[in-house]
């Protein structure tokens, strides 16, 4: 891939440092638009994470380090308020949909039968199953978001922000949605 001719845009799934930190570089170097979910624009512009809510042992051991992570912020070219069709601005047949939960402005991307879920859930550290993300302030709300997603898409594979990918069956099993 030649980024100078093939990169059409950057979708930031949410404003945390481990997902948004490189966006400014690509935005400036390749002059492509950056898409950020509404309500994550402050994190994205300041480069500072909002407070994280650890879920489980691993998250508790990393909480301070991850919450204090920073990056050089930037300005979003496009704020995603609800659903945005990327075809008009990038030529890519995909949709970005705001699905707050992990952060107030989290988004997911659907392109055909491919779904990029950011940190809506994650893959297992060991094995291939789906897991609740390390940091989630509203675990029950997250479960509702996952239920909603599964009712709206037919994808069998989900690409997550950490580990994975994971299968639909493993997501259903983890979240008790059989």
From TrEMBL:
Keywords tagged on the record: Hydrolase, Metal-binding, Zinc
Cross-referenced InterPro entries: MBL_Glyoxalase_II (IPR051453), Metallo-B-lactamas (IPR001279), RibonucZ/Hydroxyglut_hydro (IPR036866)
The keyword Ion transport belongs to this UniProt entry's keyword annotation: no
GO molecular function: hydrolase activity; metal ion binding
Cofactor(s) demanded: Zn(2+)
TM segment ranges: none
A Pfam family per the record: Lactamase_B
Domain of life: Bacteria
Domain Metallo-beta-lactamase, chain residue ranges per copy: 1-162
Protein name: Metallo-beta-lactamase domain-containing protein
Organism in which the protein naturally occurs: Archangium gephyra
């Amino acid at each position: 891939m030649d980024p100078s001719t093939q990169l059409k845009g950057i979708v930031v799934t949410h404003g945390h440092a481990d997902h948004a930190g490189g966006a400014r570089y690509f935005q400036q170097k390749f002059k492509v638009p950056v898409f950020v979910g509404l309500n994550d624009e402050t994190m994205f512009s300041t480069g500072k994470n909002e407070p994280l809510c650890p879920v489980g042992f691993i998250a508790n051991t990393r909480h301070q380090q991850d919450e204090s992570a920073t990056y050089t912020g930037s300005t979003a070219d496009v704020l995603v308020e609800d659903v945005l069709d990327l075809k008009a601005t990038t030529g890519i047949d995909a949709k970005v949909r705001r699905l707050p939960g992990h952060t107030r402005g989290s988004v997911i991307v659907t392109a055909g039968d491919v779904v990029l879920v950011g940190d809506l859930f994650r893959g297992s550290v060991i094995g291939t199953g789906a897991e609740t993300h390390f940091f989630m302030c509203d675990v029950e709300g997250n479960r509702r978001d996952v239920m909603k997603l599964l009712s709206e898409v037919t994808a069998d594979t989900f690409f997550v922000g950490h580990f994975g990918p994971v299968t639909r069956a493993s997501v259903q099993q983890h979240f008790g949605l059989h």
